[in-house]
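Progress against Task 2.4 (sequence-to-structure conversion) is shown through the following example record, which the project officer requested during the mid-term review.
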Amino acid sequence: MTADPSRSTGRMRASDADREAVVEQLREAAADGRIDMEELDTRLGQALSARTHAELAPLTEDLGPVVTAEPLVLKGGVHGASRSGRWKVPPVIRAHAGMGSVKLDFTLAECRPREVELEVHGEMGGIMIVVPQGWTVRSDELELSIGGLKDRTEGTGAPGSPVLRLTGSCDMGGVTVRHPNFRERRKLRDTK
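Structure tokens generated for the chain above:
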């Protein structure tokens, strides 16, 4: 992500990442009750149409500095790693399988970013990604190699749903993307 727009030269053009950072801060403020829904709608419209940092800065200056989330880094190492259950999805995730595998289950995760970059490196153990129905998975930037990619999702998801953009490489372990299986769906029903 970029730096706080209020610290940048006002005439400098704003990027999509700059606008998205402001949108996320506004959504957080609404979730915390610092601004109401009507004000959120107004500010979101202004943020999405902003062309410069000077147009973005006033939208969040009364809310404090833009907090940029650190990327989530998972390293499979020898024993593997996973993230599942209820967790907050950051805009950037890096997963390195190593000899053990990595599993990322987004089924119960809270995902506020509209687009999540997931940099994967399948290495020896491979990476399993479980996404809810309706999510879009884009893998055109993923470097395919020995392990390959198995994408068992339907492709294009529901409008307004998160987009998971895969980058990195499959390596020997490969990368698998799928929806929750029968056992996982049953477990979800039991937790509700």
